[in-house]
Amino acid sequence: MDAIAESLTRSLSSAGIPAWLVVALISMIPLLELRGSILVAGILLKTQWLPTYAAAVIGNMIPIPFILLFIKVIFNFMRKIKGIQKFPEWCEKKALKHTDQIEKYGYFGLYLFVAIPLPGTGAWTGSLLAVLMGMDFKKSLLAILCGVMTAGLIMSVIAYGASGLIGLFS
User: Fold this and answer.
1) Span 25-62, pLDDT tens digits
2) What is the pLDDT of residues 93-139, one digit of tens each?
3) From 4, 18, 58, 130, which residue has the greatest number of CB atoms within 10 Å?
4) Alpha-carbon separation of residue 80 from 20, 86, 90, 94 (angstroms)
5) φ/ψ (deg, to 5) at 81
6) Helices 107-115 & 137-160 angle (0-180, nearest 10)
7) pLDDT category of residue 170 using cuts at 50, 70 and 90
């Protein structure tokens, strides 16, 4: 489990913040996103699966429309500020390394990129890629949402175990 996610979870929980809100907040953080939040919820917080899943998906999706709509403006602004002007270029270079899959499969490739919980993938990077590749806002948002929901199910199996999820439906 990521030390940052674990430390953040302990700090927020000890401050009296409800577990569902801790999960949603961690899901909004780049790099941690839904993957980190579901792991800490299932392993550390011992929360129930369905509320955790819902909070993680919602939390992970909150920043996505803003990224899709405003990241170019934000990056252009950052390029003018001494000390962080190279950060947008670094983000773009890292994201553009993953264009092959999306160019080949389009929106389904974007879905897969977000859905498969590997380091360097996720909703934030997927959103940046969609913008850099000039993809349609609504179609990108839907592909990313479906990818986040799938990644949430995969991470739930890891955090809660298959038997923990199957028990919900029996």
Assistant:
1) 999 999 889 999 999 898 888 899 999 999 999 999 99
2) 988 888 988 999 999 999 999 999 888 899 999 999 999 999 999 99
3) 130
4) 38, 10, 15, 20
5) -105, 120
6) 30
7) very low
Q: What is the pTM of this model?
A: 0.89
Length of the chain as a residue count: 170
Q: List the domain boundaries for the chain.
A: 3-61, 64-152
Q: What is the CA radius of gyration of the chain?
A: 17
Alpha-carbon distance values, 53 to 8, 39, 76, 84 (Å): 18, 11, 35, 35
Residue with tokens 């792991």, as numbered in its chain:
39
**Closest C-alpha among 77, 18, 7, 51 to residue 152:** 51
Quote the CA–CA distance of 151 and 94 in Å, as a whole number.
Answer: 21
Count of CB atoms within 10 A of residue 143's CB? 25
SS3 of residue 101 by DSSP: helix
Residue 10 token pair: 């302990």
Please give the structure tokens belonging to residue 32.
């941690």
Give the ranges where 62-118 is alpha helix by DSSP (H): 64-78, 87-96, 99-105, 107-115
